[in-house]
Description:
Layout: H1 2-17, E1 18-20, E2 28-35, E3 45-48, E4 54-55, E5 64-70, E6 76-78, E7 80-85, E8 95-100, E9 103-105, E10 114-120, E11 128-132
Parallel strand pairs: 2-10
Antiparallel strand pairs: 1-6, 2-5, 2-9, 3-4, 3-7, 7-8, 10-11
Amino acid sequence: MLRPLLALGLALGIAAVTQVAAAADNKWAVVTVNNFTPDLTFTFDVRWGKGKWETVKPVPPGRATTFSHPLDANGRAPGFQVRLNRAIGNAKPVIKTWDLTWKASPNNAAKSGTHYEIFRDLIDRQYVWLAEVGRR
């Protein structure tokens, strides 16, 4: 009983670091971040795995930006992270880093990736939050 649980724990630990795609025709890891706010433009940082943080071009209201990374021969790609200051205007800055799940795809088009949305926090409207589309 202990051996299967240990194997499951090890598998889950490995999955947290690197995702694996199932289908052989998938060539890309794809993530899209949507700005669903009506009035805010966002700039944030992203990285694949432990790579260098890169600042993305500003994402205006109602727009999205897509990120992709080629899968290796085993269908793997590093994890994807977004780092964002959640504060709006004069609110106290709160820097948050999210680990986003990518979706394997045969192309690097936005429609094929996992979609996330930036939206105003439902409790404190001076801040924003990031969640997978349909999961807030």
